[in-house]
Amino acid sequence: MSPSSTTTYSVTAYDESGQYSDTDEVKVSVNALPTVEAGGNVTINSGDNVTLTATGATTYKWSNGATGASITVSPSTSRTYTVTGISNGCEATDTVRVTVTNTVEVVADAGADQSICAGSSATLTATGGATYLWSTGATTESISVSPSSTTTYSVTAYDESGQYSDTDEVNVTVNSIPTVSAGKNITITSGDSTTLTASGAKSYKWSTGETGTSINVSPSVTTTYTVKGTINGCEASATVKVTVETPRVFARAGGNKDICQGSAVTLTATGGDRYLWSTGEKTASITVNPQTTTKYSVTAYIGDASGTDDATVKVSPKPNVRIINGSEADILEGEFITLSAKGADSYKWSNGATQPNIAVRPTKTQTFDVVGYINDCSSEKSIKVNVFEKIVANAGDDVAICSDESTVLTARGPANSEYLWSTGETTKSITVNPEEDTEYSVMVYHELDSDTDSVMVKVRNCANSQIVDGNVALEDTVKLDFLIHPNPTYGEVHIKISGLSDASSIHLYDLSGKSLYTEAISIKDHKSYNKTIDLSDFASGIYLLQLVDNQRVITKKVVLR
Fold it and tell me: Does residue 296 sit in the same domain as residue 310?
C-alpha cells in the first residue's frame, strides 16, 4: 500500500472453523517531503571563498561531507554542491553552482573620515584600484583638500584595463576654531594677587603651565599671560596683561568739621599705615581746638607711597549771652521782675521760657539760667533774684519803769533787716533809762523797704505803786493779763484778758486810725474774757488792737499775713 496521505487500516482474523474472529487497526502516517533550498548560484574570483546556506529542513548534509545549514567553500574551479535536507525522516535535495572566474574585482577605498580645523587642509588617499578619479577632478592616488565647511569627497577606482571600477566616499568634517578670551587687562597693586579666567574653549593651558579655566597670579612686575584653548581638536590662544602698580595711597583727613569757639574736635585719618599731620603729630587721630576757622592737612604713607588730604575745621562764634539785669537782682515779695537776655539768636530759660524777655515772680530767692544759641553754638548765663520780705516794724509794747531804772527795748523785723533807733543806735535791742516819759522810735529797713514804729517808756515814782505788765498800778490793783495769739496771724486772732477792774472795751484800728471793730466787755467777763476775731477778709498788713478802761489804754500790734 502506498497511501498519499495519512490512512488507518483494519484487519479481521478468523479461527479455522471460521466461527470465531477478532478485528484490529493500524494507522499509516504520511509525512510531507521537506522543500530544501541551497540558495542561488554564485560567481567568485579564484582564491575567494563564499558561504552557502540551505533552508527548508531540520538537518542538512552537504555533498562535501559538511553538516549544518551554512558552509564556507573556496573551490579552485567551478563546482556544484548538493545538500540533503531531512525533516521527520523525510529528505529532499537541492544543488547550488559556484562558478570560479579569474577576473580581478575592483574595491575602491577613499580612506577613513577625517576632522580638520577651519583653515587647515587634509590629505585623502585612495586604494583598491590601478587608477583613480576624485570628485574634485584629481586623478592622483592622494589629494590635499581645504574645505571651508564639512564636505563629502568621492573617488572611483579602476582596474588596469579600465573595464572594471568601484566608488567610495570619505567625509572631511571642518571644526570651528574656538574664540578664546583670557579676560580684560587688569591693574593690581604690588603685593596683591588676581584671578585670570579663560573662556570660549573646552580645555586650556596657560603660559604658567597650569591647565584650569582660572588661575591665580601675583606678579611682582607687569606680565602678559597667554592661554591656549582647545575644542574638538582645534586650538586658539589669547593674552591678558596684568599691570603691577606701586601702591596708590588715598589719604582721608576725616572730612570737614563745624565747631563752636572754645570747643575741641577729633580728626581721624585713614588710607595709610603711617601719618603725618600739619600739626606735626603722627597719630591717626588728633584733637584740635582752633579759635578761628583752620585747615589741617595729613599725609598718609604706605611703604614709600603717600597721599595727602585736608580737613577744614570751621569755627563758629560762641554767643556772648548777657543778662541785662546783671548777675543779681532784688525784689520785694509779691513783685514781678522782667529778666532780659541779649547776645544770641534764640534762648531757653531754666523755667522753660524761650523769649529773650521773661517776667517772673519768685516767692523766694531763686537763680534763673538762660542758654543763648547762635546756630548750634551756645553759652549760658545766670541771675540770682533775691526776694526780700516786706518790712513791718515793731518796736515792742509800751513799758513802764520806775525812775532811776532802765529797760531793754527790742525791735522786730525780717531776718535781713537793719535797725536805726531815734537814739542813733543801730542794734536790734537798746537799753534806755529815761528820767521822764519818753517815746522811742525805730526804723526797720533793708535795700527795698523800710518801716517805723514807736514805743512809749513811762517813768513812774514807785514809792507807793508797782509796775504790772508794764503799767503803773495801785498796790491793791489786780494783776492784768492781755494776751493775743497767734501773732503774726493768717486770719483768726484769739484774745484772752483777765484782771479787769472797771468798765472796759476792745478796739481794732488800721494804721490810718480807721476803726474796724469795737466791743464792750461786760462786768461779768472782767475776771476772764475770751474772744476770737476773724481778720481773713482784711488786707495783709499791721493792725492795732486796744484794750481801754478808765485807768489804762493798752495797745498791741497785730500782724496779718
Answer: yes
Nearest Cα neighbor of 257 from 297, 282, 293, 300 is 293
Cβ atoms 298, 277 nearer than 8 A: yes
- Residue type at position 83: V
Whether residue 180 lies inside any domain: the answer is: no
410-412-415-421 Cα dihedral, nearest 10 degrees: -60
Within this chain, do residues 339 and 383 fall inside the same structural domain, yes or no? yes
Residues 336 and 362 in one domain: yes
Q: What is the full DSSP assignment across 133-150?
A: EETTS--SSEEEE--SS-
Burial of 300 (0-12, 13-18, 19+ CB in 10 A): buried
Give, in degrees to the nearest 5, the angle at Cα 243 between 241 and 245: 175
Residues ≥6 apart with Cβ < 8 Å to 118: 148, 174, 175, 176, 177, 234
Burial status of residue 161 (CB atoms within 10 A of its CB: 0-12, 13-18, 19 or more): exposed
Contact (CB, 8 A) for 511 and 524: no
- Walk along the chain (561 residues) and give the pLDDT tens digit of each residue: 677 677 777 777 887 887 877 788 877 677 788 988 988 998 887 778 899 999 989 999 998 999 988 999 998 888 999 999 999 889 999 999 988 776 556 889 999 999 999 999 999 999 988 899 999 999 999 999 999 999 999 999 998 777 788 999 999 999 999 999 999 999 988 888 999 999 999 999 999 999 999 999 999 899 999 999 999 989 999 999 999 887 778 899 999 999 998 889 999 999 999 999 999 999 999 999 999 999 999 999 987 788 999 999 999 888 999 999 899 988 888 889 999 999 999 999 999 999 999 999 998 999 999 999 988 899 999 999 998 888 889 988 888 888 888 888 889 888 878 998 888 899 988 989 998 899 998 888 887 888 889 999 998 876 544 444 444 443 344 567 788 888 888 889 898 888 776 778 888 887 666 788 888 887 777 677 888 999 888 888 888 888 877 656 677 788 888
Residues 18 and 91 reside in one and the same domain: yes
Please provide residue 523's backbone torsions phi and psi, each rounded to the nearest 5 degrees: -60, -35
Tally of domains within the chain: 7
Q: Are 469 and 410 contacting, i.e. CB atoms less than 8 angstroms apart?
A: no
CATH classification of the domain holding 464: 2.60.40.10
CATH of the domain at 506: 2.60.40.1930
Domain that holds residue 375: 322-388
- Residue 250 lies inside a defined structural domain of this protein: no
My answer on whether 401 and 457 are in the same domain is yes
> How does DSSP classify residue 524?
G
Co-location of 42 and 128 in the same domain:
no
Residues 18 and 69 in one domain: yes
Task: Using the structure block, give the residue that is written with the C-alpha cell 493798752.
Answer: 554
Any bridge partners for residue 25, and if so which?
A: 10
Give, in degrees to the nearest 5, the angle at Cα 406 between 401 and 412: 90
Query: Whose CA is closest to 493, among 544, 457, 423?
Result: 544
Residue 143, C-beta contacts closer than 8 angstroms, at least 6 positions apart: 123, 124, 134, 136, 153
